[in-house]
Design a protein that fits this description.
Distance between the termini: 42 Å
Number of domains: 1
Shape: rod-shaped
Order of helices and strands: HH
Strand content: under 5%
Radius of gyration: 33 Å
Number of strands: 0
Largest sheet: none
């Protein structure tokens, strides 16, 4: 019985030795493929992040301009009345500053979200998925 096991064990060892180089090649190929896939995924994520950031920036700018235009309409008519023209101009100034500050805040928040997304992508990129 011991001879049978030894013979079987030797066969298994020979098979394993012949398979090992093939398995190493496959393992290396899988790691390279994963690394390439990671690069592709993170490249796409960075591109998507940039597109979203640009869309938010453009949307915020457009919304600010629209708000400013709509807010000025009634003041333009009221400003034509001489007796209240001075206070109307004061209101116009305060209103423009308020709208400007509001949309500055929105831009600050979107910039911070963009920074956080960039940090998350960078951390995930540095994580070794290939192992």
């Amino acid at each position: 019985m011991a001879n049978v096991k030894t013979t079987e064990t030797k066969k298994e060892e020979r098979i394993m030795k012949s398979v090992e180089p093939i398995m190493e090649k496959i393992t290396k190929r899988v790691k390279v493929t994963r690394a390439n896939l990671n690069q592709e995924i993170f490249g796409d994520l960075k591109e998507l992040k940039a597109v979203v950031k640009k869309a938010f920036d453009n949307g915020t700018r457009s919304a600010g301009e629209i708000c400013q235009t709509v807010a000025e309409k009634p003041l333009n008519y009221l400003g034509k009345i001489e007796k209240i023209a001075g206070p109307v101009n004061d209101v116009r100034e305060i209103q423009a500053k308020t709208i400007g500050h509001l949309f500055d805040l929105v831009r600050t928040v979107t910039d911070k979200v963009d920074d956080i997304a960039g940090e998350i992508i960078k951390k995930a990129e540095n994580f070794n998925f290939a192992s």
